[in-house]
Specification:
The chain is an alpha/beta fold. It folds into two domains: 142 residues, no CATH class; 125 residues, Rossmann fold. It contains nine helices and nine strands. The strands form two sheets. Strands 4, 5, 6, 7, 8 and 9 form a six-stranded mixed beta sheet that branches. Strands 1-3-2 form a three-stranded antiparallel beta sheet. Helix 1 runs antiparallel to helix 2 and helix 6 packs across helix 9. The protein is elongated, with a radius of gyration of 22 Å. The N terminus is likely disordered.
Amino acid sequence: MDKVHSNKHLPPPHTQPSQLEPMLLDLVQRHLEKVAASAEMRRSKKLCQFLRFTVEEVLRGHGSELKEYAIGVGVFRRGREFDTGADPIVRVQARRLRSKLAQYYQTEGRDEPMRIEYPVGSYSPVFVQRTAAPAQDALSSVEARSSSVPRLLAVLPFVGVGNEGSEAFGEGITDELIHELSSWEGVRVVARSSCFQFKGRSEDVRRIGESLGVTALLSGSVRIEGPRVRVLAQLIDAETGVNLRSSAYDRELGGILATQQEISRELAGIVRLEFG
């Protein structure tokens, strides 16, 4: 049976790192190295940099200075003109980091004696020590560990190829897919406006995934020839750029709306099985 724990916040570091108890300082530093080397984290260089930068700043006694601008400049190499209102990179990556840490502590790090957590609305991490919990807390603790972290997906605008009507059909397919997938509890889908900023742009899917803070991307193309339409779709791992699934749909082009809905529902069903 899994060990049952309750959480206790470690004392916050004082102004100077030397004032933090050496044992606690060493515990946090060793835990940071272990998390950064985990399978969940090591595939994302930027998230590891985000984690290291913020934890080390807190250990130096600079936690109160961890604002969006400082992280954008210090971690993501934004210039002095960095506008936090126009560029959401820090907010997006903070959400992604919280999700990665939650997944790590539910799997590989489930028995770790401490946790690194980022309270919502803050970029300053807190260190939570886990201690044995009373027996009556066992059920709630096991349930908390078994609950899944919602996965983040972006549906990129489907590209119209050839016939003039292909582009409009592709936008309709994209909208239908966002609608269909958003109704599923296991997935959170990025808003249409955020996805459509990449329309017509040729970029590495890994960069797009990092920018949107997602774990997978759904993209595709539409070709209309006479009375027929062909839709190709790919589900892509946003961290590796590898195709997880590819599907093709050939239909007689009757009612446009009905055809878009039919293809979108079939594709959404496949994505749910593959992505879930």
